[in-house]
Amino acid sequence: MTRSSRVAIAFRCADPQFASALNAENNLRTTVPRKTIQPRTQNLPHKQRGVALLMALLVVAIATLIAVRIFSISTTSIARTESQARLDDAMHLSKGMEDWAIVLLWRDAESGDGIDTRNDTWAATLPPLPVPGGLVAGKLEDLDGRFNLNSLVRNGARDPVAMARFARLLTALKIDPALADVAADWIDGDAQVQGQGAEDLEYLRADPPYRAANRAFVHISEMRKLKGVDDKIYARLAPEIAALPIATGFNVNTASVAGFMSLADGISEELAKRLWAQGRAQYRNITDVVDAITQAGVALDPASMQDLKVSSNFFIARADVKLGDREFRFYSLIERTPAGGRVRQRSQGAFF
Asked: What is the pTM of this model?
């Protein structure tokens, strides 16, 4: 008992009135209810649980998005790696086809009869052969039997024989022969328009603008840049032309019907088809060709025989590779040399 309690008891015992008042105050304290103050933090546990739940859902959602993104990136990376690996394998196989083509052409030159025709071994299509993971097939085509665009200009000047031959080829293909002037202007070294040609001023008006090359054709696809050449004209022209060194001749044994029509004025489509012999022409020399043309009543200018020959040096090797569900096509420009051969160009998808 504290000192104040003892003092209160003493006063109550000594003074009856004080004791009575003290008892009344105690009764009042016990009968009047006290107002209970609720703490403000009473409801916080429920709110905290809601916030915690939302945070957990948010974390799960973010983690899911991250996982999906990582999976997507991984899947794309794996697919890209697999695709690149197959492309690398296909390229190695195509280079194997190049080796096959060079050996085949070298053997033909060593043991052949000095002429190249579509009857030769090299002209046969290589059927699909099994390789690890797929198949590979191939084919060789002669390019010397096509018109060489780079023969249009020799020693800085237009070659009249080549210009006339190209104009006849265009006419046979139902293309405006004025394209011969345009092609010559594209590769000559000056900026002067000749005939119905075109130079920088024509091409600088294009969108985007560009200039004439003023150098030899590197690839026949440059013809797409020339004035007057659209997709339809290019599709007709591409199988008939090549971009080769200037000195490359024209092999009549592998020429097309249009190619025979380009040799001289007066060679009709009917005569050209006879000379073409269903694509199996086999002339031993140029004299045989001249005799066949003159016997048909067509006069030949001796100059028009320029660059004609019965053999070839340039070929295009095509490799068709299938690995799994993917297919690839490669082209290689091969030059046959006395030592065997070499690859001059490579492309994937299309040569034209």
From this structure: 0.77
